[in-house]
Amino acid sequence: MRLLVVEDDRALAGVLKRALTEDGYAVDVERTVAGAELAAAVNDYALIVLDLGLPDGDGADLCRRLRANGHTAHILMLTARDARRDRIGGLDAGADDYVTKPFDFDEFAARVRALLRRPRGARPTVLEAGGITLDPATRSVTRGGVLVPLTTREFSLLRVLMNRVGEVVDKTELLEQVWDAHYDGFSNVVEVHIANLRRKLDLPDNPAPIATVRGAGYRLIG
User: Fold this and answer.
1) In terms of DSSP H, where are the helices of the chain?
2) CA–CA distance, 58 with 95 (Å, rounded to integer)
């Protein structure tokens, strides 16, 4: 069973990884929001241990985005904040449980085991539009019944457009949803990925249904 620990304190992250590994789990460690989002896009984690305070963003915001993107992993919020509103905020963002630092490691391990005994969330909805089928659970895309191999970024980009079918999505929003805060908003990274996505989705007699709205953004035609 694969778990992800998102904690910027190297010493604590090391202790958590060692403790969870000794309990028989495969454990990945990330120290930033950007790294955690990329890891969660690539791997199907059973549980994510998520620190609330991270150097490049807020753990609650990351939790909210993971849930919005269909991630069903159990999320255990790890926080030094003990204010009631912070605990409630973490749970409202989609966390399943929380542990306040400093904590007892035996209790932490027990909470992990308890969460892993629970069934995971409902299977994400399969999206269909423009002759394209996108399955978030298997991370697969087909068009015309043919499997379309996409990179992680291309898959995420298409997913955003399919969740907003018929609407114009601007470049800034695509950067915020698919890339991290370190990307330059003036670069052509979105244009390059849109071009690659179109090329992969094109059929001989049926072009990819992604329209460019000049000066505004992109729209998936349903």
Assistant:
1) 10-22, 33-42, 59-68, 84-92, 105-117, 152-163, 171-178, 189-201
2) 13
Sheet holding 74-79, edge to edge: 26-30, 2-6, 47-51, 74-79, 97-100
Closest CA to 77 of 95, 89, 103: 95
* CA gap 144, 83 in Å, rounded: 52
166: left (phi over 0), alpha (psi -120 to 50) or beta: left
Question: How many CB atoms are located within 10 Å of the residue 179 CB?
Answer: 21
Q: Cis before residue 119, ω within 30 degrees of 0?
A: no
Calpha distance 29→140 (Å, rounded): 26
Find the length of the chain: 222
d(CA 82, CA 107): 17
Beta bridge partners of 142: 133, 147
**pLDDT band per the 50, 70, 90 thresholds, residue 86:** low
Mean per-residue pLDDT, 34-49: 91
Please indicate, yes or no, whether the overall pTM of this predicted structure exceeds 0.70: no
Those residues with Cβ within 8 angstroms of residue 202's Cβ, 6 or more apart along the chain or in another chain: 208
Which residue in 150, 157, 163, 155 sits closest to 189, CA to CA? 157
Q: CA 31 to CA 172: how far, in whole Å?
A: 25
How many other CB atoms are found less than 10 A from the CB of residue 188? 11
